[in-house]
Amino acid sequence: MKNLSVNLSGKTRIFGIVGWPVSHSLSPLMQNAAFTAMQIDAVYVPFPVREIDLRDAVTGLRVLSIQGFNVTIPHKQNIIPCLDRLSKEAQAIGAVNTVAREGDELVGHNSDSSGFLRSLQYDLGFSPRGHRIVVLGAGGAARACVYALCQAGAAEVVIANRNCERAIALSEEFGLICPSTKIHAFPLDNNALKEPCYAADLIVNTTSIGLDKMGSNAAGTFDLLPWGNINSETLLYDVVYSPGSTPLVKRARANGMVAKDGIGMLIAQGEEAFKIWTGHDPGDSMRCAVENVA
Ligand code: NDP
Questions:
Q1: 11, 15, 23, 9: which is closest to 44 by C-alpha?
Q2: For a substitution probing ligand 1, which of 162, 171, 248 has the most ligand atoms within 8 Å of its CB?
Q3: Which pTM was predicted?
Q4: pLDDT grade, residue 214 (50/70/90)?
Q5: Is the backbone peptide bond immediately before 74 cis, with ω within 30 degrees of 0?
Q6: 185: β partners
């Protein structure tokens, strides 16, 4: 039975997460653990919201004085027109995963980007400055990761995507924002990727290859990567996470590489959101909460 020993009062502040679906989300567990650890009178709840209802839902959250909320699939981009302002990062990335109330305004932030960088450092001991990195995918998570890598001083970023036009568009867009990083676009194809993967210090997966729609392991994995050309010193980070690790992480480890899945990014983006809302560092409360259920 779950421990429901929360002390709600008329002063309790309410936070939450907006997405569809949200029932699988670990964010309520992490954020409530942090509120408890920090003795903050607040509670964090899931708000399942369909795409068609997003604008009405944000109006509701606004008038109910919800103090802040996370945004997850499929709303990270569509929420932007519902907000009053965006942080510099959210503006550049074009996606919002954290909304904070500032006075009467709802301000959109993106903590996926800083969470990714923190997890690279914490989980792989990797700092992007001066390094060559291959990013698989060109969707929302790729935008946050490529932005983070460029801001952190990566020398070269190769974006490889099934739909190569999306990779080209992303490389051109971020090329303008981040002129000191060389950004190239490639098709997600093991022949084309031989050279970039051979030269890479880090490979980051942001695609959902190998996962079915419910996020479980599925057959068919990463034969699109030129495994024979990847050095065992090359690190691999999979932003996807799944209990017992992801198919890609297992494959990379079998190749002799050090590889991590995205649970560290999930925790770090939650910690960043908590800091935005409360001004406090939640310490290791979120990591402990996630490790307790793993
Ligand atoms: P998007 O839908 O925006 O992008 C999906 C990407 O995956 C696209 O590049 C798409 O390529 C590619 N893709 C999907 N299926 C295939 C396939 N069969 N073969 C090749 N490429 C494929 O999703 P997001 O970027 O928002 O999320 C991606 C993953 O990252 C999700 O699993 C999500 O849970 C995870 N994530 C994890 C976070 C964390 O905190 N750890 C934070 C954010 C996301 P194409 O353009 O060709 O369709």
A1: 15
A2: 162
A3: 0.94
A4: very low
A5: yes
A6: 159
